[in-house]
C-alpha cells in the first residue's frame, strides 16, 4: 500500500528499479524515498524493535530513511535520486 | 592563502556569498543539498515544470531572486553541492562528497547551517505516515507529493498554517489543523506581530483561506497520540476536556524550529542561553561575529528568525567579515541591516507569544512514549536515569543513550531536555546542551580521502 | 565558611580506581569522602574503549589483573548492575609471522598466571572466526577476557560507594591541597573544606600535579585515544579484538554497535579531548582489512578522553615516599578499566592493613624519584 500521493508533475518518464528484488517503478526526478513510498509504506525496520519506519524529516537530519543499494552502498532515501535499474533493499531492522 | 568558506546555501549563505563577491572576495560555498536554496526555497528537480508561484506562493519572488543570485554567482564562487561538513578542527573543515573525504582549510568561515523542525514526540510518532511539518512541505515542494491521502496538521508555529494551506491548494485532502496555541495567545501577541504587517497578513490569510475552504481549524487543540498498526490510521487529540478522534493516513507535526548548531560547537564557539528559542545558541554580536575570531554566524542556524532575516543576516555577516579583513564597507548599509534585523526580532518575540511552547508537554508525556527514535529510548527510561541523580543532559545521555544514535539528538534533544528539566526540577538552561560529536552526520567505512 | 567535612580518607577522583577504593573502604567501615571535580566516571573511566582484558598486560600487572578478573565476575553483587560486562573472549591478532612469534612468546611467559591463552594459527583462526580479515595470520585467544560498558560501570562504582556510606561530592572543581602535619586539608573550588589523615591520589591524567606538590614529580603525559562507534549491525563479532603491536581494536556490543579505537586525537582544553579527523579517517580506511564486514557501514559517533601515560607505560600504585598518608593510583596508559577495581581494593588494603594482597612494588612512584636523584648527582 502506498503512503505518498502524487499531486503534480505526473508527466515524467517512468524509471524501473527493484525494491527488495521485486520490480517497481518511479518517475524521473523522484528521490528514492518518493519512489518507494508511492508504491510501499516503509523504508526500513527500526534497529531495536524492527518496527516499520518511513523517514521523518525529509531533509537529511533524522537519519531514519537509510536504504541499501545493490552495490553495497547505503544511502539516505530522502536525498538520493532514483536511477533506472537501481536495486534498492529495505533492511528489516532487528528485535534483540 | 586559504579560502573564505560559507557552509550552507540557503538564504543566509547565498546572500553572504553574493556580498563577498561584490567586494571582490570569492568564497567556497558548501551545500549539503544537490541544489542551492536551503529548505525554505528548496528547488524542484530540473525536469519538474510547476511555476515558482505555485511552489512558493507569496514568497515566489524572493525564492526566484535568491535562486537567480546563486545562478549568477556561478564561476565567481567555488560552489560545492552534495557536500557534507562532517567535522571541523584547527581552522579547517572536513568534508565528504560522493564517498570522498577532503580537508578544507579556511581563512574565515560563515556558518549558515539552518534549522530543522522542533519535535515534541507523542505516542505513535514513529509510525510510517508521521512527518515533520517541514517534511510535509518538502514532499510537496520538491517532489509534488502529499505525505498521504488524508492529512492532519498539528503542533504550532507559523509553518503549521502555511503547510496546511499549501496542501489544500495543491489538492490534498486536509482533514484539519490542530493548533496547540489558544486563540487568546495570538490576540495578546498582536502588538509585536504588527511590526511585520505583511508577514502577519499572510498568516491571517492562510488561516482565513483554510476556514473558507472548509478545513477545520482548532485552536488550543493538543495531539494526544497517533494510532495505527503498520502506518497511521487515527489521531487522538484533546480540546479542553474533550477527546476527539480523527481517522487519517498521514499526519505532520512540529512546534516551530530548532537551530543546527553542531558545526559551531565543534569549532569551539561560545554558547549562550536563549530564552526565546529555549535553546543554547552560539553567541554572536549584532553583525554575526561569533566568539571565535574567524567564525561568523548567520541565519536560522544561529537562532530562529526566518528566511527574510536570514538573507539580511547573511549579508551583514559577510560585511563584518570583509570589515575584519580590512575592507571598506558601507556603514549605512550595516546600520540599515541591523535595524531591520532588530525589527524582525521583535516580530519573532510576538510569534513566540502567539504560538507559545506547550509548557505541559514534559509533565504529560507518558512513560512508554519513545523520546529517542534512533535508540528507541522511552521517556520512562530517561526519567529513571534522572531519578538516579543525572540531571546534566550529557550524563543522562551516557546513562540511557538518549540522543546517542544516528541523528545525534537532532530529533530528540529538545524534548529530552524538557523531560530532564521537568523531572529534576532544574531550569531548562541548567540541564545543559548535548555536546556535538563528529561526525556531524554518519560517515562510511572505506571512505577515500586525499592525504 | 562551610563546616569542615571530616573523614578518615579523602579519595581524589571518582574514576574507576578512586570509586573502587572508596567502595572498598566504605565496605570495611571506614569514613571516606570521594571527591570529584566534575561528574563521577565521566572522564576516561567512563569514555574509554571498554575492553576488559588481561591478555597483553605486562607480567607485573597480572596478579592485580587476575584479582580484578575475580571482581568483574562478581560485578552485579558489588555495584548492582552487570554493566553490559561480557566474557566474550579476546582475540589478539597478528598481522605478520613476527607478530605471531611475539604472541607465542607472551603465551609462554604468562603461562603461570592462569590466563589460559590459546594460540590459533591461520587455519584455526579462519575456522573459528571467519569474520576476521585475511590480513591476520594468527591470533592469541583468551577465552575469559571480554568487554563492558564504561559509561555504566564506572559511575556505578561511585554509586555503590555512596550506598555503602561513602560521602560522594561531585562538581567540586579544582581543589587546593595542604598538609598541616597531621591531616590533609582540602579547599574545593566549589567552596567546601575537607580534612582527613589519608589522601588517595586517583586523579587520573591530572594526578601528576598533586604528586609534584608533595615532592614527587613524575614525567606523565596526556594521551587521547581516538574511538568511534558504528550504527547497530547484525551480530558478527563473537570476540573482542586487538592487534599485536598496536592498531585498530574493535568489539561489538549486544545492541549491535561496533566500538573501534586506534590512533590518537588531541586535547581541546585541559579537560576535553577530540579524536581528530586524521585518526578517524585512518580507522575508517584501515578497519575494513581487519574487519571486512564493516565495509559500507557507517560510523555514527566519535570521541576521545584524557589518559595519563608514564614513560614505561606502567601505572603508579602505592604509598608516597615523601608524605605519610598519601597514596597514589594513576597513570594507567589507557589500560586502567579492567585493572581499576583491583587497584582501588589494593589502595584500600594499604589504608586498612598496611599492605596489599597482590604485589605492587613494581609500580612504586620511587622508580621516578631514583632517576631524578641520579640526574641531580651528575
Description:
The complex is a heterotrimer of chains A (96), B (451) and C (378). Chain A is mostly beta strands and 96 residues long. The relative contact order of chain A is 0.26. In chain A, the strands form two sheets. Chain A has a five-stranded mixed sheet with strand order 3-2-8-6-7. Helix content of chain A is 6%, strand content 29%. Chain A has one domain (14-87): Ubiquitin-like (UB roll). Chain A contains one helix and eight strands. With 451 residues, chain B is of the alpha/beta class. In chain B, 35% of the residues lie in helices and 24% in strands. Chain B is built from 15 helices and 24 strands. In chain B, strands 1, 2, 3, 4, 5, 6, 20 and 24 form an eight-stranded mixed sheet that branches. In chain B, strand 21 (370-372) and strand 22 form a beta hairpin. The longest helix of chain B is centred in the last third of the chain and has 24 residues, at 331-354. Chain B is globular. Chain C folds into two domains: 4-49 and 151-218 and 311-377, FAD/NAD(P)-binding domain; 90-143 and 225-304, D-Amino Acid Oxidase, subunit A, domain 2 (D-Amino Acid Oxidase, Chain A, domain 2, 2-Layer Sandwich). Chain C is 31% helix and 26% strand. Chain C has eleven helices and 24 strands. Chain C has helices spanning 16-27, 44-47, 62-73, 75-79, 97-109, 122-128, 150-163, 207-213, 277-290, 336-353, 366-377, and strands at residues 4-6, 9-12, 32-35, 51-52, 90-94, 117-121, 138-142, 146-147, 167-169, 175-179, 184-188, 193-196, 198-201, 221-223, 225-230, 240-243, 249-252, 258-264, 266-267, 273-274, 298-303, 307-309, 316-319, 326-330. Chain C has a six-stranded mixed sheet with strand order 9-3-2-13-24-23, with helices on both faces. A four-stranded mixed sheet of chain C has the order 1-12-11-10, with no helix packed on it. In chain C, strand 19 and strand 20 form a beta hairpin. Chain C starts with a strand and ends with a helix. Chains A and B meet through strand 1 and strand 5 of A and strand 8, helix 4 and strand 9 of B.
The count of DSSP E runs of length 2 or more, i.e. the number of strands of chain C, is 24
The side-by-side strand order for the widest beta sheet of chain C comes to 9-3-2-13-24-23
- Sheet with the most strands: spatial strand order of chain A: 3-2-8-6-7
**CATH fold field value of chain A:** Ubiquitin-like (UB roll)
Mean pLDDT of chain C: 96
Q: Give the radius of gyration of chain A.
A: 13 Å
Annotated CATH homologous superfamily of the largest domain in chain C:
FAD/NAD(P)-binding domain
Low-confidence stretches of chain A: none
Task: Work out the oligomeric state of the chains in this entry.
Answer: heterotrimer
Q: In the CATH hierarchy, what is the class of chain A? A: Alpha Beta
Major sheet of chain A: size, sense and barrel closure?
A: 5 strands, mixed
For the record, give the distance between the C-alpha atoms at the N and C termini of chain A, rounded to a whole number: 28 Å
Largest interface: A-B, 42 and 55 residues
CATH architecture of the largest domain in chain C: 3-Layer(bba) Sandwich
The average pLDDT value of chain A, as a whole number, equals 96
Note the overall shape of chain A. globular
Order of helices and strands of chain A: EEEHEEEEE
Amino acid at each position: 500500500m502506498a503512503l505518498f500521493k502524487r499531486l503534480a508533475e505526473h508527466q515524467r518518464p517512468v524509471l524501473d528499479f527493484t525494491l527488495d528484488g521485486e520490480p517497481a517503478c518511479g518517475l524521473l526526478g523522484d528521490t528514492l524515498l518518493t519512489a518507494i513510498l508511492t508504491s510501499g509504506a516503509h523504508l526500513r525496520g527500526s534497529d531495536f524493535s524492527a518496527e516499520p519506519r518511513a523517514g521523518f524529516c525529509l531533509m537529511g537530519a533524522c537519519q531514519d530513511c537509510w536504504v541499501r543499494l545493490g552495490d553495497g552502498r547505503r544511502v539516505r532515501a530522502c536525498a538520493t535520486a532514483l536511477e533506472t535499474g537501481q536495486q534498492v533493499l529495505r533492511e528489516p531492522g532487528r528485535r534483540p | 592563502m586559504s579560502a573564505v568558506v560559507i557552509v550552507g546555501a540557503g538564504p543566509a549563505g547565498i546572500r553572504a556569498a553574493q556580498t563577498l563577491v561584490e567586494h571582490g572576495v570569492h568564497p567556497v560555498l558548501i551545500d549539503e543539498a544537490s541544489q542551492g536554496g536551503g529548505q525554505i526555497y528548496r528547488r524542484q528537480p530540473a525536469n519538474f515544470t510547476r511555476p515558482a508561484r505555485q511552489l512558493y506562493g507569496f514568497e515566489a519572488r524572493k525564492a526566484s531572486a535568491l535562486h537567480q543570485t546563486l545562478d549568477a554567482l556561478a564561476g565567481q564562487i567555488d560552489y560545492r553541492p552534495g557536500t557534507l561538513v562532517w567535522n571541523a578542527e584547527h581552522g579547517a573543515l572536513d568534508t565528504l562528497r560522493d564517498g570522498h573525504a577532503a580537508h578544507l582549510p579556511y581563512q574565515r568561515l560563515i556558518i549558515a547551517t539552518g534549522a530543522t523542525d522542533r519535535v515534541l514526540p507523542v505516542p505513535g510518532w514513529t509510525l510510517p505516515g508521521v512527518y515533520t511539518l517541514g517534511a510535509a512541505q518538502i514532499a510537496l515542494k520538491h517532489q509534488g507529493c502529499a505525505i498521504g491521502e488524508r492529512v492532519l496538521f498539528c503542533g504550532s508555529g507559523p509553518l503549521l498554517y502555511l503547510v496546511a494551506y499549501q496542501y489544500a491548494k495543491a489538492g490534498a485532502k486536509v482533514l484539519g489543523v490542530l493548533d496547540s496555541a489558544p486563540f487568546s495567545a495570538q490576540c495578546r501577541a498582536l502588538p509585536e506581530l504588527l511590526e511585520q504587517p505583511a508577514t502577519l497578513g499572510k498568516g491571517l490569510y492562510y488561516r482565513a483561506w483554510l476556514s473558507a475552504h472548509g478545513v477545520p481549524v482548532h485552536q488550543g487543540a493538543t495531539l494526544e497520540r497517533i494510532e495505527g498498526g503498520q502506518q497511521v490510521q487515527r489521531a487522538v487529540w484533546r480540546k479542553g476536556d474533550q477527546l476527539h478522534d480523527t481517522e487519517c493516513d498521514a499526519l505532520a507535526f512540529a512546534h516551530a524550529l530548532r537551530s543546527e548548531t553542531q558545526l559551531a560547537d565543534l569549532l569551539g564557539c561560545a554558547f549562550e542561553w536563549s530564552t526565546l528559542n529555549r535553546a543554547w545558541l552560539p553567541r554572536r554580536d549584532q553583525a554575526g561575529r561569533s566568539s571565535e575570531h574567524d567564525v561568523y554566524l548567520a541565519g536560522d542556524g544561529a537562532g530562529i528568525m526566518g528566511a527574510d532575516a536570514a538573507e539580511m543576516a547573511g549579508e551583514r555577516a559577510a560585511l563584518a567579515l570583509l570589515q575584519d579583513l580590512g575592507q571598506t564597507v558601507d556603514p549605512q548599509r550595516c546600520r540599515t541591516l541591523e535595524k531591520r534585523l532588530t525589527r524582525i526580532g521583535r516580530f519573532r518575540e510576538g510569534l513566540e507569544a502567539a504560538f507559545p511552547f506547550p509548557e505541559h508537554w514534559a509533565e504529560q508525556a507518558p512513560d512508554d512514549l519513545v523520546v529517542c527514535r534512533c535508540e528507541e529510548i522511552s521517556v520512562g527510561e530517561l526519567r529513571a536515569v534522572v531519578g538516579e541523580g543525572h540531571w546534566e543532559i550529557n550524563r543522562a545521555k551516557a546513562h540511557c543513550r538518549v540522543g546517542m544514535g544516528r541523528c545525534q539528538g537532532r530529533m530528540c534533544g529538545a524534548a529530552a531536555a524538557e523531560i530532564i528539566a521537568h523531572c529534576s526540577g532544574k531550569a531548562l538552561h541548567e540541564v545543559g546542551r548535548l555536546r556535538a560529536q563528529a561526525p556531524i552526520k554518519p560517515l562510511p567505512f572505506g571512505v577515500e580521502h586525499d592525504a | 565558611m562551610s563546616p569542615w567535612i571530616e573523614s578518615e580518607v579523602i579519595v581524589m577522583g571518582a574514576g574507576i580506581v578512586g570509586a573502587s577504593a572508596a567502595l572498598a573502604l566504605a565496605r570495611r567501615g571506614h569514613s571516606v569522602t570521594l571527591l570529584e571535580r566534575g561528574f563521577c566516571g565521566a572522564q576516561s573511566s567512563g569514555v574509554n574503549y571498554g575492553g576488559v582484558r588481561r591478555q597483553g598486560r605486562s607480567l607485573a600487572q597480572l596478579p592485580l589483573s587476575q584479582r580484578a578478573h575475580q571482581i568483574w565476575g562478581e560485578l552485579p553483587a558489588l555495584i548492582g548492575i552487570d554493566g553490559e560486562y561480557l566474557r566474550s573472549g579476546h582475540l589478539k591478532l597478528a598481522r605478520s609471522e613476527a607478530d605471531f612469534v611475539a604472541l607465542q612468546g607472551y603465551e609462554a611467559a604468562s603461562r603461570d598466571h592462569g590466563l589460559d591463552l590459546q594460540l590459533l594459527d591461520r587455519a584455526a583462526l579462519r575456522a573459528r572466526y571467519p569474520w576476521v580479515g585475511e590480513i591476520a595470520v594468527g591470533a592469541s585467544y583468551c577465552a575469559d577476557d571480554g568487554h563492558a560498558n564504561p559509561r555504566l560501570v564506572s559511575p556505578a562504582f561511585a554509586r555503590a560507594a555512596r550506598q555503602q556510606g561513602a560521602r560522594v561530592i561531585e562538581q567540586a572543581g579544582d581543589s587546593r591541597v595542604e598538609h598541616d602535619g597531621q591531616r590533609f586539608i582540602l579547599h574545593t573550588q566549589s567552596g567546601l573544606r575537607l580534612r582527613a589523615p589519608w589522601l588517595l591520589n586517583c586523579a587520573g591524567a591530572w594526578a601528576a600535579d598533586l604528586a609534584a606538590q608533595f615532592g614527587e614529580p613524575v614525567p606523565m603525559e596526556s594521551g587521547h585515544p581516538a574511538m568511534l562507534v558504528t550504527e547497530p549491525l547484525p551480530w558478527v563479532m563473537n570476540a573482542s579484538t586487538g592487534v599485536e603491536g598496536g592498531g585498530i581494536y574493535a568489539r561489538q556490543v549486544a545492541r549491535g554497535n561496533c566500538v573501534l579505537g586506534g590512533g590518537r586525537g588531541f586535547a581541546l582544553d585541559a579537560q576535553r579531548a577530540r579524536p581528530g579527523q586524521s585518526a578517524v579517517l585512518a580507522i575508517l580506511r584501515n578497519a575494513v582489512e581487519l574487519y571486512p564486514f564493516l565495509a559500507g557501514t557507517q560510523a555514527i559517533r566519535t570521541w576521545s578522553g584524557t589518559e595519563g601515560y608514564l614513560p614505561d607505560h606502567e601505572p603508579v600504585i602505592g604509598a608516597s615516599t615523601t608524605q605519610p598518608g598519601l597514596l597514589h593510583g594513576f597513570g594507567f596508559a589507557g589500560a586502567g578499566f579492567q585493572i581499576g577495581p583491583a587497584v582501588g581494593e589494593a589502595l584500600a588494603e594499604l589504608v586498612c592493613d598496611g599492605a596489599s594482597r597482590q604485589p605492587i612494588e613494581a609500580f612504586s612512584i620511587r622508580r621516578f624519584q631514583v632517576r631524578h636523584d641520579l640526574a641531580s648527582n651528575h
